[in-house]
Amino acid sequence: MIHYAALPLELIFEGCESYDPDYLRLRFARGWIIVEPLSPHSFRVVQLMSSDLQDYLNPQFQPGRIIDLLPGEIRTNR
Amino acid sequence: MFFFNRRGRVPMRRTKQPETPPPQRAPVLENIQQLGQVQAPQLESNIYALPIIGQIEGHLTLPPQNKTTKYEHVIPQLVAVEQNPKIEGLLVILNTVGGDVEAGLAIAEMIDTLSKPTVTLVLGGGHSIGVTLAVAGDYSFISETATMTIHPIRLAGLVIGVPQTYEYLDKMQDRVIQFITRHSRISEAKFRELMFSTGQLARDIGTVLVGKDAVEVGLINEAAGVGRAITVLNELIEKRRNGVKSS
What we know:
Structural class of chain A: mainly beta
Strand order of the largest sheet of chain A: 2-3-4-5
Strand order of the largest sheet of chain B: 4-3-5-6-7-10
Number of helices of chain B: 8
Radius of gyration of chain B: 26 Å
Largest sheet of chain A: 4 strands, antiparallel
CATH topology of chain B: 2-enoyl-CoA Hydratase, Chain A, domain 1
CATH architecture of chain B: Alpha-Beta Complex
CATH superfamily of chain B: 2-enoyl-CoA Hydratase, Chain A, domain 1
Order of helices and strands of chain B: EEHEEHEHEHEEHHEHEH
Strand content of chain A: 25-35%
Oligomer: heterodimer
Largest sheet of chain B: 6 strands, parallel
Number of domains of chain B: 1
CATH class of chain B: Alpha Beta
Number of helices of chain A: 1
Distance between the termini of chain B: 63 Å
């Protein structure tokens, strides 16, 4: 991998080794959403894996978006 | 459902009813229940705006102090733009410091090969690999105060072996230069001259182009803002509509 950026590389990769987030896979009708749990009910979207391309245009699935879910709505598979 | 007679509780007899579809929840309600959010009312637009901000994140997840645009989301997004019949044009808004070469080139190639009209607009900055994205559209804009930094690709410390490393970096750099010179008016010689010029950057060799400079060297088509960008995109959409109809 080659990183080509105007920022100093040491600034970009600072904390690279200690950064180890605990991701969770949430199931939804057309695929999976990989999220980072922030609290028991709120999650930050990390990645979307959907069989329907139009889902990628939906702002609710945009990486970085914080979604809230009720306990009954969470089905996970690590 | 039950009702009572003298002998006690008896299940009510089902009478045949015309089949009705199950009551549908309003989409807004569905959103609230599924994602805990209310969606803002959507205005129908035939233009899709794709902002590319921060670092372009590729094969490696960057630590959280970085703001990133993830290529694994942008690439299917672009396929969806191509596929969606309601979207007629793409506006790419760039404010990026650079990022992964492979991811940046992949997104640039995707923007370049879309059959729908694409206009790019550099706001704030479009540096390093962001330059390839800026030139990938059918027409490119830079706002007057936005900057573009052109500098050589540096070693990220992940490759061992000096001669091979230099050759590898050189090849990567060539890919970037080839793409940029093929998609803009700048010549390869001029671009290399900007890339290796000294005295402009404090910590590096290279050049910073501000707004109109990028237009003068032939990298960008025009120095203007969002209003003009949308106008040009609408013109391109109109042209394509007419072209499709007449052929």
